[in-house]
Write a structure and sequence with these properties.
The complex is a heterodimer of chains A (296) and B (531). By secondary structure, chain A is of the alpha+beta class. Chain A folds into three domains: 1-54 and 82-120, no CATH class; 137-233, Immunoglobulins (Immunoglobulin-like), CATH 2.60.40.10; 242-296, no CATH class. In chain A, 25% of the residues lie in helices and 22% in strands. In chain A, helix 1 (9-18) packs parallel to helix 2. Residues 45-120 of chain A have low confidence and may be disordered. Chain B folds into two domains: 4-71 and 128-258 and 311-410, 7-stranded beta/alpha barrel; 418-527, Families 57/38 glycoside transferase, middle domain (immunoglobulin/albumin-binding domain-like, Up-down Bundle), CATH 1.20.1430.10. Chain B contains 20 helices and ten strands. In chain B, strands 1, 2, 3, 4, 8 and 9 form a six-stranded parallel beta sheet that branches. Classes of the chains: A alpha+beta (296), B alpha/beta (531). Strand 9 (246-248) of chain A pairs antiparallel with strand 10 of chain B, so a sheet runs across the interface.
């Protein structure tokens, strides 16, 4: 292919004139190069077509749409590996515009050229790596599902230092306090590697909530606590029957105002229009609106 | 009175991606593709339905991070460039395909469509998709609702309740800034709910949210109408449950409509089909090919990409007609049956990612339009409603609290909390802790200090986006997701440190404000310590 960028503007105009390109006389060099490239490509389009048919398909991995995942929208650009172009200055940005002339249909609605918002040149940031430690003693539980709880910790604060000083030969143990729906909380204990920092602990259906504690265990069962987590409820995975109770929450009255009336929490009742009514009237209303269900 | 209600909910969301430091940035295409294939077609659909007087009650989430891109001049200008470039490519394509009877009509179809969208974008919406959406929201059929500021997975952030409050409060105030009124509903990111989140919603007078099917079925106490009526949490905020049946018909690979052989094939794109010299100006500046959005083939069947048959628009639209009719028919049966069972009009709530329609399932927006038209003319069993409209009609409901869960794979939080991405959680919590401390320390900041504290709040919110751990789990643009977590956390920590030392690098702060620029009105005091 001819390298139009090496030609002078006069040469480019001559070429454009010969090809019958309209408006060539007012075009800038970049525009001329663009239109000539297009014109050139169009001339040899028959050749191109023939070549496409024989060329092996490039790039994209075949993926049948019929095998769509439940949330296909996030699969964007799957086969395309991220590769960033080098950062550029403003001048380079403007040069990156498509240099072909817009079709007439486009020109109608875009009188101006691509006047892109140009960034102030942003220098490279040297942000480094994420910190290894925040200099604290912390132990945090995060729910994952009914059977697993995520747990992470950091032992870099005063309390853990003190514990190590008290029991230099102690073993680091993780205690879990599992509160059951009925009965006393259950305590389990396991030795952990101080280097772990992140792990998952097992929970069971029926466990109400879990709290964790890290500390040192010494001879004779001595336990020196370092840090305790908050108590976190375990997600449930079973049906919880109970007597149904109904209420009316009129959309046109703010929740704040309804709260001030002592409402929703069960103190008072309103009808479908937000008027305060007594309990018997409300019972009749529910019976009307919810056939077959028992009030409260 | 209809026998029941059908409530379509579209969740339009993309993470905030803005890279003014590059002339072209691949991940910015997410927004451009969705705008051209989903948001602009939906706006055009609303226009036609309004013009024809079709009642199209539906709910649409526009997340604050998406709204931030829709209103950012950076994205507006680049979206125009994106559409114009596509039209330039189509000029070449016109010459390239010549009078080929298979492809000439497809090229013409795209030219016509994209010219219309460009015209609407520039001349009707003045570069602002927000303006278009606000217009239809005001007319009343479409109800817009909000989402948490950056789509943060709230149950994971709850160890600092202030972080959850900020996500919701910024979500509500950004909605008001864009759409001129307070939101009545919210989409909890990934439908992720755990007990207590409803109280933050009540504080903003947000009146409803949506949970996944199992969170409703396992609610406490068990709801007598299952997923077919909302429940009121004790705070007074309503929770709607997602319907499985209507969802499956659109999503499922076996029963779903989008896999029909006549619909457009997503993976066969001109960007990969054309000779390199020809296409180089329309792919990545690095020379790597990419999707251009011009796709001329139909799904055809379970065959190799090279064996796909040409796309026939008319044949595809015939299938749309059949599928929309089938969807309507199934809703009639479902709603009649539920009404008989309950003796009360049920509501069927069908939420989907908006980008499924148009971007993934190319004809999806036509499907929605056809469904509304048929529902208006061909049946009288159900009425299409938005969720506020329903709550106005049916304010009496059961009191119950949904169970913890999400609409992600397996129903809980595994997608966002697993050994590939859990390293980030500590950093997100630590930044939130520091943010709360900063408010204690600088309760009345002014000038540069105020700007820096507000920017800290933006960096923290951007780091919390659920999209990053999601992308890491699904193994798509993993490097980019890791990079975004790292950059926002480190920008936050460095800026926080500068604030504490009273040594703010103002020039750098300016760059951050320009680049990580959503939520211009944010007030860092939203992180004020809760007692």
């Amino acid at each position: 292919m001819v390298d139009f960028t090496k030609m002078t503007v006069a040469e480019l105009r001559k070429e454009a004139k010969e090809l019958g390109i309209p408006g060539f006389s007012v075009m800038k060099k970049a525009e001329l190069v663009g239109v000539l490239k297009v014109a050139h490509a169009e001339r040899s389009e028959d050749d191109l077509k023939k070549r496409t048919k024989d060329e092996p398909k490039t790039g994209k991995v075949a993926k049948d749409k019929t095998a769509a995942k439940p949330k296909p929208v996030k699969e964007k650009a799957k086969a395309t590996k991220l590769k960033e172009p080098a950062a550029v200055d403003d001048a380079a940005e403007l040069e990156q515009e498509p240099v072909v002339d817009a079709p007439a249909s486009v020109r109608e609605v875009t009188a101006s050229k691509y006047n892109l918002v140009v960034a102030p040149s942003i220098p490279e940031e040297h942000l480094g790596l994420l910190p290894e430690s925040y200099g604290q003693d912390r132990l945090v539980l995060v729910p994952k599902d009914p059977n697993w709880m995520f747990l992470y910790w950091e032992l870099a604060g005063e309390s853990s230092k003190k514990a190590w000083a008290t029991l230099p030969d102690g073993k680091l143990v993780l205690r879990l306090y599992v509160e059951q729906e009925k009965g006393a909380p259950e305590l389990t204990e396991q030795e952990v590697d101080a280097g772990w920092k992140r792990t998952y602990i097992r929970t069971r259906d029926g466990d109400h909530s879990v709290a964790a504690e890290l500390g040192l265990k010494g001879p004779g069962g001595v336990f020196v606590s370092m840090v305790r987590s908050e108590r976190i409820p375990v997600p449930v995975a079973r049906i919880r029957p109970g007597a149904p109770k109904f209420t009316v929450v009129p959309l046109n009255i703010s929740l704040r105002k309804l709260r001030e009336q002592g409402y929703v929490s069960g103190g008072s009742y309103v009808d479908l229009h937000g008027r305060v009514i007594d309990e018997d009237e409300f019972a009749r209303l529910v019976k009307q609106s919810v056939p077959g269900s028992k009030y409260r | 009175m209809p026998q029941g209600y059908f409530a379509l909910v579209l969740h339009a969301h993309l993470p905030f991606v803005k890279h003014p430091e590059y002339p072209d940035f691949l991940e910015e295409d997410w927004f451009f593709e969705a705008a051209v294939e989903t948001y602009l077609p939906l706006l055009e659909m609303f226009e036609r339905l309004e013009a024809d007087g079709i009642p199209y009650g539906m709910t649409m989430v526009v997340t604050p991070s998406l709204a931030a891109m829709m209103s950012d001049p950076h994205h507006q200008q680049r979206l125009r460039r994106y559409i114009e470039k596509s039209l330039v490519l189509l000029e070449r394509e016109k010459a390239f395909v010549g009078d080929d009877p298979n492809f000439a009509p497809v090229v013409e179809f795209y030219r016509d469509r994209l010219s219309r969208y460009l015209d609407a974008f520039v001349n009707r919406y003045h570069f602002s998709l927000i303006e278009g959406l606000r217009h239809f929201d005001n007319l009343g059929h479409l109800e817009l609702i909000t989402c948490a500021a950056t789509h943060g997975l709230l149950p994971v952030l709850l160890s600092q309740p202030e972080a959850v409050r900020a996500q919701i409060s910024v979500g509500a105030s950004e909605f008001e800034r864009h759409f001129g009124r307070r939101p009545r509903g919210i989409w909890l990111p990934e439908c992720a709910y755990t007990e207590g989140i409803e109280n933050f919603l009540a504080d903003e007078d947000i009146r409803f949210f949506i949970v996944d099917t199992h969170c409703m079925q396992l609610a406490n106490p068990s709801p007598v109408f299952g997923n077919f009526a909302p429940i009121y949490t004790p705070s007074g905020v309503a929770a709607f449950g997602r319907d499985v049946e209507s969802s499956k018909q659109v999503w499922s690979s076996k029963e779903g409509y989008p896999g029909d052989v006549n619909y457009r094939e997503f993976y066969r794109d001109v960007g990969y089909d054309r000779p390199f010299e020809y296409i180089r100006d329309f792919v990545q500046p690095t020379g790597l090919r990419k999707q251009t959005g011009l796709k001329y083939y139909r799904i055809t069947g379970d065959v190799d990409l090279s064996q796909k048959q040409p796309y026939n628009r008319q044949a595809a639209m015939e299938r749309i007609d059949a599928h929309a009719g089938n969807f309507m028919f199934n809703r009639e049966l479902q709603i009649k049956h539920l009404n008989g069972q309950f003796g009360r009009p049920p509501i069927v709530v069908a939420p989907y990612d908006a980008e499924l329609f148009g971007h993934w399932w190319f004809e999806g927006t036509d499907f929605i339009e056809m469904f509304f038209r048929k529902s208006a003319y061909d049946q009288d069993v159900y009425e299409c409603v938005n969720l506020s409209g329903y709550l106005q009609k049916m304010p009496l409901q059961q009191v119950s609290t949904p169970a913890t869960g999400s609409w992600g794979d397996k129903g809980y939080f595994e997608v966002w909390v697993n050994d590939k991405n859990d390293y980030a959680i500590n950093h997100l919590h630590q930044c939130a802790i520091q943010m709360i401390d900063l408010v204690d320390q600088f309760p009345d900041a002014q000038g540069v200090q105020l700007r820096a504290l507000n920017q800290c709040a933006r960096e923290l919110l951007l780091a919390q986006s659920s999209d990053w751990p999601f992308i890491i789990t699904t193994d798509t643009m993993v490097d980019y997701a890791h990079r975004r977590i790292r950059e926002h956390v480190l920008r936050f920590l460095r800026l926080a440190d500068q604030i504490r030392r009273h040594q703010i690098d103002e020039k750098w702060l300016g760059h951050l404000e320009h680049r990580d620029s959503p939520f211009p009105d944010i007030d860092y005091r939203i992180y004020k310590r809760m007692s």
